Each structure stands twice: as C-alpha cells, then as structure tokens.
Amino acid sequence: MASLLPAREEVAASGTYTYCSRPRSLPTRRKYRDTPEETFHYANLMYERRVVRGNTYALHVLPWSAQPDPLEIQRQREAHRKALARKRAKDQLQPGTPEPVEGRKHVDVSLAMTYLQKLGDRIVEVDVECQTDAFLDRPPTPLFIPAKTGRDVATQIEEGELFDFDIEVKPMLEVLVGKTIEQALLEVMEEEELANLRAHQYAYEELRNAELAEVQRLEEQERRHREEKERRKNQQLQILQKQKETSEKIAARAFAQRYLADLIPSVFGSLRDSGYFYDPVERGLCCLLSFIYSNTIRKGIKKLAVTSEVYSPFLTQYW
Amino acid sequence: MFEPLLARVHIKYGCRTFTLLGVTLKMSTRSKGYVEVGGREHYKTLARLTHVPSVSAPAGAVGIVESSLVPSLVLKLKTELDDIQELILDTLSGCLRVEAFEALASGGVHILKEKLIHESVAIRSKAARALLGISVPLEGKNIVWEEEVIPELFNLLEDADDQVRANAAGALMNAAITTQGKYAALGANAIPCLLNLINDETSKVRLNSVKALTMLAEAPEGRKTLLSHVDQFKERMNDSSEAVSRAASIAVRVIEWKP
C-alpha cells in the first residue's frame, strides 16, 4: 500500500509510468474467520488491468494525452455513421414480412405447446453383440497380393541383333594387350637400366676404391719420404752441431793449454821472488840475528837520543 | 606402404624426400625388438637411395648422413634379422663414401668385425665392403688396426665367394696404407695369400690384391719378398681390365724402387 503511492506520484513528474511494489509476505492465516478487516489491496501485476496483454502489434493504444485526438474523434464518428448507413441499407434490401391482406391480421403463433404429435411407428430394435474368443491365436495374415496394375510388356534380344562380340572386342583387346606389353617392356627396360647402372656403379666403385687407395698410398709414401728427409736433415744438423762443438772444445783446450803452459814457471818465479822459498835454518838464524841487531840498534839509538837530549841545551847554548 | 613407389620416384627424379623416410625409419627404429614387416621396405628404400646416381656424391647418402641416421643404423645392425642386416650394410657402404666418422664413433668397426665371421655369404661380403669404406679415413685405419681386424680379413681371403675375397682384399688394401697396418699384415704372412689372388678370375679381386701388395711393397721387408715375384706383376700388366694393368705397372715401379 505504501509503496503504491510514490509510484503514482512519479507519473506526473517524468511522464512515464513506473511501477514498483515491495514484496510483502502473506499475513498469517487465522484459523477462525474473524470479522473481515480492511483488506489489503495488493497490486499483483498479473491481475492488473492496466497491463497490456496479448498481441501488441495492432493495439488500440491509448492516446498520449487525456484529450482524445480530434483526428481519432472524427474517425470514430465516421465509423459510427458508416455503420448506421450499412444497417439502414441492409434493412432496405431485405424484405420483411409483407403487410397483411385486407381482413387479416398477423398473429404470432408458437408451435411449442399445442401442435405436438405422438410418433406412432416405432422401429424394432434388436441388440446384437459380437466378440471374438479371448484366447484364440491371431490367425495368420492373409497373403497380400496387390492388385495387378499396369501393362505386361516383354522384350527379347535375338541373336545377331546387338553387336558381334568378337569383332567389337578386337580393338579394345589390342589396346589392352598393347598397353600391358608396353608396360611390361618398360619395366623390364627399367630394370635392365637399373642393373646396368648398378654394374656401372660397381665398376666405378671398384676403380674409385683402387684409385683412392693409390692416392692414399702415394700420400703415405710422400709423408714417409718427407719424414725421412726431415729426420735425415735433423740428423745432419745434429752432426754439424756436434762437429762445431767438438772443434770449439779442441780450440778451447788448445788455448787453455797454451795459456796455462807458462803458468807454473811464472808462479814459481813470483813465489821465489816474494821469498816464499827459503832455507829454514838460514831464515831462523837471520831472524834471530836481525832481532838481536835491531835490539842492539834500538838500545844504541836510545842511548844516542838520551845523550843528545842531555847535551842539546849545552850545545845550543854554545852555538 | 608406398615405399616401393616412393623409391621408384626417387630413382627417376632424385627428389629429396629422404628426410621423410628418415623420420619414418627413426620411428620404426625406436620400437624395441625386431622391426615389423613393413619396416623392411624402409631399409630397402634407404638402400636404394644410396644408389641414386648423382654427379659428386649420391644425394641419398648425403641425406642419410645429414639426417644422422648412421649411428642408429649401426646400432640396428646388432639386433636385426639377416636380410635386413644386408640392406643396412648396403646403406652403410653408400653412406661411408660420404662420411665415415659417425659410423666410426658408434663403434662400427667392432660390429663389422663380428659380421665378418657370419654364416651368410652376402653379409660377409657386405661387411667386408663396409670395412673397406670405413678404413678410408685415417682414424678408420687406426681403429681397424687396433681392433685387430686384419687377421680376420686374411681368413676371408680364402673364402669361396669372389665378392667376399674382393672386398676383403680391398679392405686390406686400405688398412695397409699406414705403417702399422703394413707391419700387421706382413706379420700375418699376407704376401703368399695375396699373390695367389693376383691370378683370380674376377677382375675386382685381382685389382684389389695387386693394390694391397703395392701397399705392402712400400715397406722394406715387403719389397724384399716381392722382388722375387716381380714377373707375376709384369704378367698382369697385360691384363684385360685397364685398371688392373695400371695397378700392376704401379706395383712394379714401387717394388723396383731404390731409395
């Protein structure tokens, strides 16, 4: 109820009709009928008279405004007039009951009550029943031989009417046999060619293997010769090297020998010169003697020194 | 499977769908155990691809090497059935002409050495041929010497089948280029065996044995021994096959070389 009012208020505002109703639960049903209260007016969409139902293609749509369209009004009036005219025409065309003849008067009569007749001859009715036996087997279906329709027509090809097989088959046979033989020939030739090819290939392979081996042998030979050459060259180089070394060694030895040849005499000479070779007795005597001499000389010199010191002032005094 | 058709197309036009085949082969090689029947066609096609004629190197073989199928092929050699092994060996021989390193790296020499003593003649000859290819680069020769394949090859020299003999002689020829290979061969007394083979019927056997003897004649001991047999080589100089006569003249020159 409450929800209906705001929907209706909106009509004037937007111009379109909207409807919404809040779903409501059914009220609890009472056991005993009470005094009928004010019934709620539900607005069930299914029972709303304002909802258009059915075909909407050719509807008599309500006019937009409350005012009926003048065109519509005119049309309605015309239709009404036409209907009246039609009715009048119909009345005129159809003859009604003529007027009564003089002296008579039309009276309405009902045949219902007075002119009833009793039907005399009653037809004899007999009830007859027919029912098949309950447990009989179903009889076999009769053969269905359809009725003969159409015309019977027969035809027969006599001998010699059609083609002669032997003559006709010749070209075909020729073609077939020829093609087969050709195919066979081709295959045989192909196989022969293949065999030829293979033989050729074998021969070639043989030759190739032989040549390959030859090439490799020559390569190998070349390699060996080369290596041998290298080795010999190396050997030669080594020999030369050794020779050089030996000659150098010899030269060095010769030079060393020569250099060291007069080493010993010169050594001895220098040693002797430095006095390393001496007679020990003589040396001992010389040392002792020189020692004694030096001591004596030292004493003598000391004495001389002392005397000169003592006598020097006197000498200076008198010089 | 459309592999046979594919193979024909390859051989005719040499187009490059080996990568597709490589992928399918990889998928089938990844399955453990023996390959199913359809996988045989993979190998056949691969083997055929290596024989596609081309100017410098078979395009198929190049493709196979580039798609790095060689290691997986070598590994498959150990486990597969005999006829598939033949096909794999074929393919490998073709690929080894292009590049041998991958096969060497995946232990190819060891596996091939085992295959040399197989019962089947075809496998022996193809294994010897693969060894021939593998011993072309230097590392291959060294590994062949290390794995002591050379004595095995001597046993094959007396085999009944001529292809086996030819391929064994060829492998020896390649392996004996290095000095150590030469001495290994001389130690195993190769010269008499090879001398017998000089007069064999198949030209390939003659060629390979003459070439192998040429290698051995590079070593002084070999030269000494072969000096006594020079006339046999001189006979061979008038051989029907041009390659053999050329090889014989080279051999004579090498034997009579004085350092």
From TrEMBL, chain A:
Listed GO CC annotations: cilium
Ranges in a coiled coil: 204-246
InterPro entries (UniProt xref): Radial_spoke_3 (IPR009290)
Organism: Sphenodon punctatus
Family: Belongs to the flagellar radial spoke RSP3 family.
Record localization: Cytoplasm, Cytoskeleton, Flagellum axoneme
Chain segments carrying region Disordered: 82-103
Keywords: Cell projection, Cilium, Coiled coil, Cytoplasm, Cytoskeleton, Flagellum, Phosphoprotein
Keyword Metal-binding carried by entry: no
The keyword Cytoplasm appears for this protein: yes
Pfam families referenced in this protein's UniProt entry, alphabetically: Radial_spoke_3
Taxon lineage: Eukaryota, Metazoa, Chordata, Craniata, Vertebrata
Protein name per UniProt: Radial spoke head 3
PANTHER family per UniProt: FLAGELLAR RADIAL SPOKE PROTEIN 3 (PTHR21648), RADIAL SPOKE HEAD PROTEIN 3 HOMOLOG (PTHR21648:SF0)
TrEMBL record, chain B:
ARM repeat extents: 148-190
UniProt HEAT repeat ranges: 149-185, 190-225
SUPFAM superfamilies recorded: ARM repeat (SSF48371)
PROSITE patterns tied to this protein: ARM_REPEAT, HEAT_REPEAT
InterPro entries per UniProt: ARM-like (IPR011989), ARM-type_fold (IPR016024), Armadillo (IPR000225), HEAT_type_2 (IPR021133), RSP14 (IPR042856)
Record PANTHER family: RADIAL SPOKE HEAD 14 HOMOLOG, RTDR1
Protein's name according to its UniProt entry: Radial spoke head 14 homolog
